[in-house]
Amino acid sequence: MGKRKPSFQSRFEGDPSNLTNPNIPPFTGTGPTISNVVAGMNVNCLIDLKTVAMHCRNSLYNPKRFPAVIMRIREPKATGLIFAKGKLQVLGCRSVDDARLAGRKFARILQKTGFAGVKLTNFTVQNMVGNADTKMLIRLEGLQRACALYAKYEPELFPGMVFSLANPKMAMLIFAKGKLVFLGAKRKEDMEEALGKVWPLLLQFRMSDG
């Protein structure tokens, strides 16, 4: 009697890449592209947030609601969160290079406002958000049943599936119309690796064109 073929679920346990098959067609959609980079850094100087809010354009400070100055710049388009103890967080950039440039611009603004001791250090990418489009419809109910260890799908609460990966450690939102959102990546390569691991699964649960 021949050896029984392992079930879909048992082959999937441990890592989605267990399902990778060299005969799987390559990804034919678009992306992934970065839509938001969140980066943290230090300015190595205590900051008087009231002074910053009074003298800097495009800045907002409401300590009862949030303990930081919210400042915006146009080029590159970015939002900076400036904290009194010298922490700076940059949001809204489309690349790591833009996030670095935005951090330097926020630091120069602080220097011109009178904080001569500002020195930018410890730049760290904290999170990346990205998007891709598979250009196909996906049966999320079937995918959830087959990959219950990794997939959470509650359509009455949210229209997308939350699909978690251990390596790279991040998550994806998968929508029935084929759109993908990448969350928690540290590099664009993380998104590409995650897409490569999940793509064979998406093909198996592709809706027929008919």
From TrEMBL:
InterPro entries: TBP, TBP_dom_sf. The keyword Mitochondrion does not apply. Belongs to the TBP family. Gene3D superfamilies: TATA-Binding Protein (3.30.310.10). This is TATA-box-binding protein. It is found in: Nucleus. GO terms for molecular function: DNA binding. SUPFAM superfamilies: TATA-box binding protein-like (SSF55945). Keywords: DNA-binding, Nucleus, Transcription, Transcription regulation. GO terms for biological process: DNA-templated transcription initiation. One of its GO terms (cellular component) is nucleus. Residues 1-26 are annotated as: Disordered.
